[in-house]
């Protein structure tokens, strides 16, 4: 125990340190690293585990804290969790007890406030029309902070009173024992000191209350001054906007006066620049330079531009996209260009090739004893557990992978970008959008059978088509390939590692996703984050995504670091928050992305970055000065009645729709999945067991063939060396990864109607 002396705990601080935790009668007390933060006490085996593995957490809001002896104490939340802890010394134990009681008092207060009112929601950042309200709210926030500090001090006082009273009672009892005179004198001295300590703490509380009262008395004066500044700023902005408009009108009038007479006198010569000669050419150049100047980001900060003027200058923005990147306006221009492009998916959707279905049968309400199934599954690999269809949704994992293409428009826009940094923003938004369909989808997709495929042909409607194939069964692995007429292709190989932990289910996707653009030869790759399903046994199921993603452009070295913040009850951040920074190969930040993975993402261009104040963990934060954020992606609304249809999106509703001409191994032909969709769950369970037994029989047959081929010079059919039908395993020279890549032939076989090579898996 050579650690330095920990700081005295204060209200709201994160408290960390080593404690000994009772494990069992064999191992006894074991040294563990404990972290107290936001009313939660968590422990880890080592400090290195803090980033990835938490061994246990207890909520202090409902916990009882009891002291056993000079070094031992117990924390329990009513029997479900009990920690028997031991400190290295009595002083260390007292520090922990003080920190725990402070944290418990604060957690109880926060829980009571959140239950009583909805005022604890995080305030939204003020818009340009709410500047004064934002200033006033800032003052109110300061006052609330002061009030919170006084409440913390009040809590300290209550604890001091509590312990002081207990101390005085104990000393009074000792004094009543009529021991020696010296002992009585000592006890009286300690009692006086305890009384003086309590009086001093009361004086501190009174001083803080006086300060808060003084601040409240002056708050009206502050608000009045801030309101005056707000009104003055608004008047200044309006004046500058009027000046900008007048300047714009004067420029137009000047050009009209110099150019129009020559065009009226001789249009042909005016078009060639013959009449005005050098003057017309310079006017044309001045016109372009004027619009480019309005592209300067600094001017958008100081002078709000007219919306009509933005639209007119859109033609010039695309020309400089490669030099200046995507600024405050380019997303709107890109959307306008896509809308006007006759080849764009939006225009093609006006003449749909096929009317897709918009509903599936409602999910039946079948009762199932969850615990009777789950109690035998703790610690096992999820893919090896025979689960009834009651836990499923009528889609396979291959179809869930294809749902990543729901927001394919982001890749269409990315393919049009001239700047690789701009393209990175769209690719990063696409990676986040793939999680938007999971927020309410608590059902487990069907595990695909080995050799099972799924095609998603949207070539005529959306300009792309994709193919998935289950290339391995243990561990389960699926390969996916998608190609678009817009000049991009997507490929991924995902292996799911999942563990049931009793209270929650963790799903860790292994493997990578790659996106390639033909025009620029940009090659992107990234991995997926961990999905956690909470309240498996008791309570309502809910899903969270957490972890970090690095989207890398292997050609240019550009990188986007995305962070999916895990949900925390005590956090004041927006739930399901995602943040990201786009940097070039030198590490210079160019764009900042922020939003939530279940709703929308925004981006803003970085104008300047600097090192700010130190964060809670001592790391220096980077401050980015950015332009106004623009929306780059927004989730599509769910169809009507989605809560009765497994919360499927509009695309998901069409994935299991029967189609003609598909391969016999396609997921749409899977009988148990079809029976479940139709609401015939008992038959679906029986059919699911039949298919799983058929797959096990096929595996045993491959094992027997492998044994026969051991001594044969020819290559045997080893069960672990299953050869996929449409994909082959290759080394990617760009990313250095090994994955299954589409080798071709599927769509040609479909055109010919020749599926003789497909195995009989259903």
From TrEMBL:
Q: Which residues form a coiled coil?
A: 219-253
Q: Which PROSITE patterns match?
A: OSBP (PS01013), PH_DOMAIN (PS50003)
Q: Which domain of life is it from?
A: Eukaryota
Looking at the record, the residues that make up the PH domain are 12-105
Q: Which Gene3D superfamilies match?
A: 2.40.160.120, Pleckstrin-homology domain (PH domain)/Phosphotyrosine-binding domain (PTB)
Which InterPro entries does the record cross-reference, listed alphabetically?
OSBP_sf, Oxysterol-bd, Oxysterol-bd_CS, PH-like_dom_sf, PH_domain
Where it sits in the cell: the answer is:
Membrane
Q: Which UniProt keywords apply?
A: Coiled coil, Lipid transport, Lipid-binding, Membrane, Phosphoprotein, Transport
State whether keyword Transport applies: yes
Q: In Gene Ontology terms, what is a biological process of this protein? A: lipid transport
Cite the GO molecular-function annotations of the record: sterol binding
Q: Where does the record place Basic and acidic residues bias? A: 686-707
Q: Where is this region: Disordered?
A: 111-143, 265-289, 302-328, 686-717
UniProt entry tagged with the keyword Membrane: yes
**Per the record, GO CC terms?**
cytosol; perinuclear endoplasmic reticulum; plasma membrane
Q: Where is the composition biased (Polar residues)?
A: 314-328
Q: How does it sit in the membrane?
A: Peripheral membrane protein
CDD domains named among the record's database cross-references: PH_OSBP_ORP4
Q: Write down the SUPFAM superfamilies for this protein, in alphabetical order.
A: Oxysterol-binding protein-like, PH domain-like
Report the leader peptide range. none
Q: Which family does it belong to?
A: Belongs to the OSBP family.
This one is known as Oxysterol-binding protein
- Origin species, per record, is Sphaeramia orbicularis (orbiculate cardinalfish)
């Amino acid at each position: 125990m050579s650690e330095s002396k920990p700081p005295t705990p204060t209200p709201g601080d994160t408290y960390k340190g080593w404690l000994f935790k009772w494990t069992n009668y064999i191992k006894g007390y074991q040294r563990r690293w404990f972290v107290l933060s936001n009313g939660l006490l968590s422990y880890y085996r080592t400090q290195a585990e803090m980033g990835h593995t938490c061994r246990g957490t207890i909520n202090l809001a409902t916990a009882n804290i009891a002291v056993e002896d000079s070094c031992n104490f117990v924390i329990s939340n009513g029997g479900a969790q009990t920690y028997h802890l031991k400190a290295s010394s009595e002083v260390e134990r007292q520090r922990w007890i003080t920190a725990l009681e402070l944290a418990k008092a604060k957690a109880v207060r926060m829980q009571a406030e959140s239950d009583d009112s909805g005022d604890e929601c995080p305030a939204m950042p003020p818009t340009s029309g709410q500047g004064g309200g934002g200033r006033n709210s800032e003052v109110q926030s300061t006052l609330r902070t002061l009030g919170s500090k006084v409440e913390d001090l009040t809590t300290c006082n209550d604890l001091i009173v509590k312990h002081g009273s207990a101390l005085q009672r104990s000393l009074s009892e000792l004094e009543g024992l009529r021991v020696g005179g010296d002992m009585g004198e000592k006890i009286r001295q300690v009692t006086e000191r305890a009384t003086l300590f309590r009086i001093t703490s009361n004086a501190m509380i009174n001083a803080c209350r006086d300060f808060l009262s003084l601040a409240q008395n002056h708050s009206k004066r502050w608000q009045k001054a801030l309101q005056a500044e707000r009104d003055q700023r608004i008047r200044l902005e309006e004046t500058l906007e009027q000046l900008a408009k007048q300047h714009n009108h004067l420029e137009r009038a000047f050009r009209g006066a110099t150019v129009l007479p020559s065009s009226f006198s001789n249009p042909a010569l005016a078009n060639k620049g013959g009449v005005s000669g050098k003057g017309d050419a310079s006017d044309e150049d001045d016109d372009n330079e004027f619009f480019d100047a309005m592209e300067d980001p600094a001017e958008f900060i100081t002078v709000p531009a007219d919306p009509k003027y933005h639209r007119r200058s859109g033609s010039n923005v695309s020309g400089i996209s490669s030099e200046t990147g995507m600024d405050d306006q380019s997303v709107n221009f890109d959307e306008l260009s896509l809308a006007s492009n006759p080849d764009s998916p939006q225009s093609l959707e006006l003449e749909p090739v096929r009317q897709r279905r918009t509903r599936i049968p409602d999910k039946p309400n079948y009762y199932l004893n969850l615990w009777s199934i789950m109690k035998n599954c703790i610690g096992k690999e999820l893919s090896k557990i025979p689960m009834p269809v009651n836990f499923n949704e009528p889609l396979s994992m291959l179809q869930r992978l294809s749902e990543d293409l729901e927001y394919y428009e982001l890749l269409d826009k990315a393919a049009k970008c001239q700047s690789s940094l701009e393209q990175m923003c769209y690719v990063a938004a696409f990676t986040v959008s793939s999680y938007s369909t999971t927020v309410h989808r608590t059902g487990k997709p069907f595990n695909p059978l080995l050799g099972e495929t799924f095609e998603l042909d949207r070539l005529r409607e959306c300009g792309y088509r994709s193919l998935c194939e289950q290339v391995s069964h243990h561990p389960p692995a699926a390969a996916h390939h998608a190609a678009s007429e817009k000049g991009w292709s997507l490929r991924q190989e995902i292996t799911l590692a999942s563990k049931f932990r009793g209270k929650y289910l963790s799903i860790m996707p292994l493997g990578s996703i790659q996106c390639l653009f033909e025009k620029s030869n940009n090659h992107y790759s990234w991995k997926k984050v961990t999905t956690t399903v909470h309240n498996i046994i008791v309570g309502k199921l809910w899903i969270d995504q957490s972890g970090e993603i690095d989207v890398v452009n292997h050609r240019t070295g550009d990188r986007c670091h995305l962070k999916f913040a895990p949900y925390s009850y005590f956090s004041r951040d927006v739930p399901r928050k995602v943040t990201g920074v786009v940097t070039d190969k030198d590490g210079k930040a160019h764009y900042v992305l922020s939003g939530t993975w279940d709703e929308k993402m925004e981006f803003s261009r970085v104008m300047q970055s600097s090192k700010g104040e130190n964060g809670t963990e001592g790391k220096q934060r980077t401050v980015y000065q950015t332009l106004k954020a623009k929306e780059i992606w927004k989730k599509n609304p769910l169809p009507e009645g989605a809560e009765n249809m497994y919360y499927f999106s509009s695309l998901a509703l069409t994935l299991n729709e029967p189609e003609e001409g598909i391969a016999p191994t396609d997921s749409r032909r899977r009988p148990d999945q079809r029976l479940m969709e139709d609401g015939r769950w008992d038959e679906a369970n029986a059919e699911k067991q039949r298919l799983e037994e058929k797959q096990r029989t096929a595996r045993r047959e491959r094992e027997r063939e492998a044994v026969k081929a051991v001594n044969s010079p020819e290559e045997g059919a080893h069960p672990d060396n299953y050869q996929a039908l449409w994909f082959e395993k290759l080394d990617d020279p760009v990313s250095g990864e090994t994955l299954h890549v589409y080798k071709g032939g599927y769509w040609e076989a479909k055109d010919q109607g020749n599926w003789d090579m497909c195995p009989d898996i259903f």
